[in-house]
């Protein structure tokens, strides 16, 4: 009988010990699914920002990232892809039009000459969707390049789009949703046509082109990033993988929402060639102003 009681006592003791966590044991919280995007937001609801036509060419290339979360971004991406050493130039354009003395508006003939040079020099244009091979450590073309156009000007359809088709090259347009269907911007039908052609990919440039660092209301900040992705996906019928910070301004909270929304990449406006060590959510770009001569362009991209 004594042996039986000893056996039972030991069994209870083992059960209690097994169910009691050690002093240094921690438990991860259960994974949560990403919340579904809210219902479509009528254009203008969050329009507390600075209109895109107030860009200043003098501040465009460098003064954007006052709230830059230095070092954030993606050290994880670089450590997971240590075998990937490729650097990729991401070219930043805006309007493709004839507007004298405005560095953000590159004349169509110059835009075509630049793309023609890239083509003849052996560069291959990639979409951000194709850049997922980059983060996966897969081989890239010997001379990759990404062409981006910010804001969604209508001349991206009337001027840039025909040139892309003519040269069989790709580009990504970062569309500001609140500018959709305005007189100087792309229409929904234009976006659908460009997307379906396979020559143009669309990324988000937020809802209203406000500096994300100026949003004090997190719900509105989240809408700028998450809702804009949802609206673009309704137009194109495909996932939107890239985001462009308006004015290049971002902070820790904006980065968190970009990741939450499911973007694969985000670009800033700081000058430089993109590489994974920067983090996939803070990739650098190379600003192409209208004042850049062809000789200067060729030296940048030999």
UniProtKB/TrEMBL annotation:
Residues 143-302 form the NodB homology domain. This is NodB homology domain-containing protein. GO terms for molecular function: hydrolase activity, acting on carbon-nitrogen (but not peptide) bonds. SUPFAM superfamilies: Glycoside hydrolase/deacetylase. One of its GO terms (biological process) is carbohydrate metabolic process. PANTHER family: POLY-BETA-1,6-N-ACETYL-D-GLUCOSAMINE N-DEACETYLASE, PTHR34216. Residues 32-43, 65-78 have a biased composition (Low complexity).
């Amino acid at each position: 009988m004594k042996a039986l009681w000893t056996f039972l006592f030991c069994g209870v003791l083992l059960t209690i010990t097994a169910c009691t966590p050690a002093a240094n044991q921690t438990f991860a919280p259960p994974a949560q699914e990403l919340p579904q995007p809210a219902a479509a937001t009528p254009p203008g609801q969050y329009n507390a920002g600075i209109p895109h036509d107030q860009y200043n060419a003098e501040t465009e290339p460098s003064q954007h990232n006052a709230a830059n979360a230095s070092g954030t971004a993606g050290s994880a991406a670089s450590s997971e892809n240590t075998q990937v050493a490729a650097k990729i130039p991401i070219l930043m354009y805006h309007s493709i039009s004839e507007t004298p003395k405005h560095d953000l508006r590159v004349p169509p003939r110059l835009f075509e000459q630049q793309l023609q040079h890239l083509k003849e020099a052996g560069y291959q244009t990639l979409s951000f969707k194709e850049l997922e091979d980059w983060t996966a450590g897969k081989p890239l073309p010997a001379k990759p390049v990404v062409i981006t156009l910010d804001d969604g000007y209508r001349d991206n359809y009337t001027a840039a789009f025909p040139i892309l088709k003519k040269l069989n090259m790709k580009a990504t347009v970062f569309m500001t949703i609140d500018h959709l269907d305005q007189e100087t911007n792309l229409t929904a039908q234009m976006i659908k046509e460009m997307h379906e052609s396979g020559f143009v990919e669309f990324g988000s440039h937020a809802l209203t082109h406000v500096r994300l660092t100026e949003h004090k209301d997190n719900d509105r900040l989240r809408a700028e990033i998450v809702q804009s992705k949802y609206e673009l996906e309704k137009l194109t019928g495909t996932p939107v993988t890239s985001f462009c910070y308006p004015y290049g301004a971002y902070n820790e909270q904006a980065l968190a929402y970009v990741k939450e929304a499911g973007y694969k990449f985000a670009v800033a406006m700081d000058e430089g060639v993109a590489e994974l060590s920067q983090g996939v959510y803070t990739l650098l770009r190379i600003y192409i102003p209208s004042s850049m001569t062809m000789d200067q362009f060729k030296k940048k991209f030999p």
